[in-house]
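Appendix C: a fully annotated inverse folding record. The material below is reproduced so that readers can follow the format used throughout the book. The structure is listed first as tokens, followed by the designed sequence.
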């Protein structure tokens, strides 16, 4: 996983950033979704993907993404619209500390399918330890 600094064009008229697949997002984008209107104190995510890779941008506001490889947890605070977080598959990830009116934009490498989700943490640790993910 890594933070990617996206291009930023500062301008008196307002700033502009952009993202391109392969150049900034290290996969071909198959899906884009966004999370918004998150009430204070709520958590999203709380699962792992078997194959789906993700790229997350806080378009507005701020939130934390906690990424766990089964041994170690890392917290990334996304609070600038020109930061992207790349999350490879096979990691447990959750999102919390959403600020009021924050907007999370997420790009995925595969179409939505529930079969790609690992939703219980013990199951995740098992798949991790037997090399399935
Ligand atoms: P989910 O991924 O479970 O949200 P979170 O992990 O943030 O709590 O998705 C919530 C609901 O949205 C779930 O019923 C499935 C649906 N959904 C789609 O239909 N397509 C998608 O691409 C995503 C991400 C979710």
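Designed amino acids, in order:
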């Amino acid at each position: 996983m890594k933070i990617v600094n996206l291009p930023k064009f500062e301008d008196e008229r307002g700033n502009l950033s952009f993202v391109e697949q392969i150049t900034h997002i290290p996969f071909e984008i198959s899906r884009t979704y966004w999370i918004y209107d998150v009430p204070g104190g709520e958590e999203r995510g709380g699962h792992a993907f078997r194959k789906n890779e993700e790229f997350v941008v806080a378009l507005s506001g701020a939130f934390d993404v906690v990424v766990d490889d089964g041994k170690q947890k890392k917290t990334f605070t996304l609070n600038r619209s020109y930061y992207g977080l790349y999350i490879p598959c096979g990691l447990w990830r959750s999102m919390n500390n959403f600020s009021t009116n924050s907007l999370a934009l997420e790009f995925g490498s595969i179409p939505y399918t529930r079969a790609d989700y690992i939703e219980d943490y013990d199951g995740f640790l098992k798949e991790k330890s037997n090399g399935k993910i």
